[in-house]
Design goal:
Number of helices of chain B: 8
Strand order of the largest sheet of chain B: 5-6-7-3-8-9
Number of strands of chain B: 9
Largest sheet of chain A: none
Shape of chain B: globular
Number of domains of chain A: 1
Shape of chain A: globular
Distance between the termini of chain B: 37 Å
Largest sheet of chain B: 6 strands, mixed
Radius of gyration of chain B: 20 Å
Structural class of chain A: mainly alpha
Number of helices of chain A: 11
Radius of gyration of chain A: 19 Å
Order of helices and strands of chain A: HHHHHHHHHHH
Largest interface: A-B, 32 and 31 residues
Strand content of chain A: under 5%
Strand content of chain B: 25-35%
Helix content of chain A: over 70%
Number of strands of chain A: 0
Structural class of chain B: alpha/beta
Oligomer: heterodimer
Distance between the termini of chain A: 32 Å
Helix content of chain B: 25-40%
C-alpha cells in the first residue's frame, strides 16, 4: 500500500517536471535554445568587455572559465527564482488537492536541472574546442553540480514558503541575485580582490562551488578534503534550513494562497 | 456507533482576517512595532458528524455556510483550528473538476497530467486511458490543445478522468451543474454505480433534485454551525423553508 503511494508520487513528480519543461519552451520557435542562448549571449557580451577592454584574458582558458561561471550562476538564479514562485503558480492545486507540497518546488528544481544537463553538454563542446587538457578530476565536477542542485533546491524551499506570505520577496531576491552576480568571481578572478576581503568570498557558497568546479574541470585540480567537507556541510545545512522552514509552514499554504 | 469512515468531532475552523494586509515584507516590517489586529471569522463552529461506510451524504446550505471548508478539512487540505477529523480510508477529492489542467497542453497530455494529480501511477493511467477517452466522447479532439475546447468539453474530459480515481471515499463539490442533459444523465449513472460499489460519497450541491435523488442522509449547515441532519426530504424542506423566510 505504502509502496504504490510512493510510486504514484514519483509519477506526479515526473509529470510536473516534464510538462513544465515542455511548456516553458513549446511556445517559442527556438524552444530550448533560449535557455542556452540567454547565458551564451551574456557570455558574448561579458567576454568582449572583460577580455578585450579590461584584459582579464590573462586568465588561462578565460572563455571556459567565464562560460562555466555563467552557466552555474544562471542555473542558481533561475532555479531559485522559479522555485520561489512555484507554489503560487500551482496555487489551484494546493487549495484543491492533498499531496506532499514539496513535490512542487522539487519538480521546479528538476525542470531547471534538465536545462543544466543540456547546458553542460554545450560546455563540454566548448572545452573540447579549447585547449583545456581534461583529466579524471573533471568527474569531481559532477559532485559539484549535485551540490549545486541541492543548494538551489534548499533555497527554493525557503523562498517559496516565505513568498506565499511576503509577496514582495521577489523584488528583494532579484536585488540579492544581482549583487551576488558581481560579488561572486564569475567574470573576474579572485586574485584581483585584496586578500583582506577573501574571507567574505570564502563564506559565499556559490563562489566555493564555482571555484571547485573550475579547478576540477578546467585546471585538473581536486580540492582538499577540508574544502570538500566544508562545502558539503554548508550546502546541506542550507538545504536543511529550507526544508525545516518549508515543513513548518506547509500546513498553512492552502490558507495563504 | 456504526461502521463510520469519516468522523468529525467538535471541529472548528477559524480564519484570521487581518485589518491591515501584511502580505508584504514592507508592511510587515512597518507594522512590527504596532500591534497587529485581526478579526476572527468562524468558518466552522463546533461541528460533529459521522459518516458511515458506503453512504451517500449530501451537504447543503447557503453560500458561505462552510460547506467547502468542511470538505477541505475532511480532505486534509486545511487543518482544523480545534477538534478532530478522522478518516479511515483514502480519499479522492474532486472538489473542483479540471484542477491541474493546463490549457496549452493537448487533451491527451492533460489526461495523463490529471491522472497523476489524482494519484494514479503511470501504469494505471495507461490502462485507464482508453476508458477515459471512450467516456468523454472526445476521441476526435484528443491531440488538440485544451484551450480550443469549449468549457463544456473541458468539464466532460475532467469528469471522465476524475471518475477513474480509485479511492473508496469521494468528495464531490458541485460538479454536476455542468454539461448537457445526456452527459448529466451519464454522470448520474456513474454515481449510481459508485453507490452499488459501496463507495462513500460526500456531495455538496445546490441542486436539490440531485440531493434528493441520491443521498441517504443530508446535513444542513448554517453560518458554519447548527447542524441539522436527517433524511433528504425533511432536510431539504427545512432548508427551502428557511430560505423563503429571508
Amino acid at each position: 500500500m505504502k509502496k504504490t503511494k510512493n510510486n504514484n508520487y514519483l509519477y506526479l513528480i515526473q509529470q510536473f517536471t516534464v510538462t513544465d519543461f515542455k511548456l516553458r519552451y513549446s511556445h517559442s520557435v527556438l524552444g530550448y535554445i533560449w535557455s542556452l542562448l540567454n547565458p551564451l549571449l551574456m557570455f558574448g557580451v561579458l567576454y568582449v568587455v572583460f577580455s578585450i577592454f579590461m584584459r582579464f584574458g590573462g586568465i588561462e582558458h578565460y572563455q571556459v572559465y567565464l562560460l562555466s561561471g555563467i552557466l552555474l550562476w544562471t542555473f542558481f538564479a533561475e532555479t531559485t527564482n522559479n522555485g520561489m514562485q512555484s507554489l503560487l503558480v500551482k496555487s489551484s492545486l494546493i487549495s484543491k488537492l492533498k499531496f506532499p507540497r514539496i513535490i512542487i518546488p522539487l519538480s521546479s528544481t528538476l525542470t531547471n536541472s534538465i536545462s543544466l544537463v543540456l547546458n553542460m553538454i554545450v560546455l563540454s563542446l566548448f572545452i573540447a574546442l579549447s585547449r583545456v587538457s581534461v583529466t579524471y578530476s573533471a568527474f569531481f565536477g559532477l559532485v559539484v553540480l549535485i551540490e549545486l542542485i541541492i543548494l538551489s533546491f534548499g533555497i527554493s524551499l525557503l523562498l517559496s514558503s516565505l513568498f506565499l506570505k511576503f509577496r514582495d520577496l521577489n523584488h528583494l531576491w532579484a536585488v540579492v541575485l544581482q549583487m551576488g552576480f558581481w560579488a561572486t568571481p564569475i567574470i573576474y578572478p579572485i586574485d584581483i580582490v585584496p586578500v583582506k576581503y577573501h574571507i567574505m568570498f570564502k563564506l559565499n557558497p556559490m563562489f566555493r562551488l564555482i571555484h571547485n568546479f573550475r579547478m576540477a574541470v578546467i585546471y585538473g585540480e581536486l580540492p582538499g578534503i577540508r574544502n570538500i567537507t566544508f562545502n558539503l556541510v554548508m550546502v546541506l545545512s542550507l538545504f536543511v534550513l529550507g526544508f525545516i522552514v518549508f515543513k513548518k509552514r506547509q500546513k498553512y499554504f492552502a490558507e495563504w494562497i | 456507533m456504526m461502521n463510520s469512515v469519516i468522523e468529525v468531532k467538535n471541529l472548528s475552523k477559524v480564519f484570521r482576517i487581518p485589518h491591515m494586509r501584511t502580505d508584504y515584507l514592507k508592511t510587515y516590517l512597518l507594522n512590527f512595532i504596532k500591534a497587529r489586529t485581526h478579526e476572527k471569522f468562524y468558518a466552522l463552529k463546533n461541528i460533529s458528524i459521522n459518516i458511515a461506510k458506503g453512504k451517500f451524504v449530501g451537504i447543503i446550505g447557503r453560500n458561505g455556510s462552510g460547506k467547502s471548508t468542511l470538505l477541505k478539512l475532511i480532505a486534509g487540505i486545511l487543518y482544523p483550528t480545534s477538534g478532530e477529523v478522522h478518516v479511515k480510508d483514502t480519499i479522492s477529492p474532486f472538489l473542483e473538476l479540471g484542477v491541474g489542467f493546463n490549457h496549452e497542453l493537448s487533451a491527451r497530455e492533460n489526461i495523463f497530467l490529471y491522472c497523476s494529480v489524482l494519484g494514479l501511477s503511470k501504469q494505471e493511467s495507461r490502462e485507464r486511458f482508453p476508458k477515459i477517452l471512450e467516456f468523454s466522447e472526445l476521441e476526435h479532439f484528443i491531440d488538440s490543445p485544451l484551450k480550443t475546447f469549449s468549457s463544456g468539453m473541458q468539464v466532460r474530459l475532467a469528469f471522465s478522468v476524475a471518475i477513474q480515481a480509485k479511492s473508496p471515499i469521494l468528495l464531490v463539490d458541485e460538479v454536476l451543474a455542468v454539461g448537457d442533459a445526456p452527459f448529466q444523465q451519464k454522470c448520474f449513472n456513474v454515481f449510481e454505480q459508485f453507490k452499488r460499489e459501496g463507495k462513500t460519497i460526500v456531495y455538496v450541491s445546490h441542486n436539490m433534485e440531485s440531493i434528493q435523488r441520491f443521498c441517504d442522509k443530508v446535513i444542513l449547515l448554517q453560518n458554519g454551525e447548527e447542524v441539522v441532519e436527517g433524511s433528504p426530504q425533511k432536510i431539504v424542506d427545512t432548508y427551502l423553508n428557511s430560505l423563503s423566510q429571508h
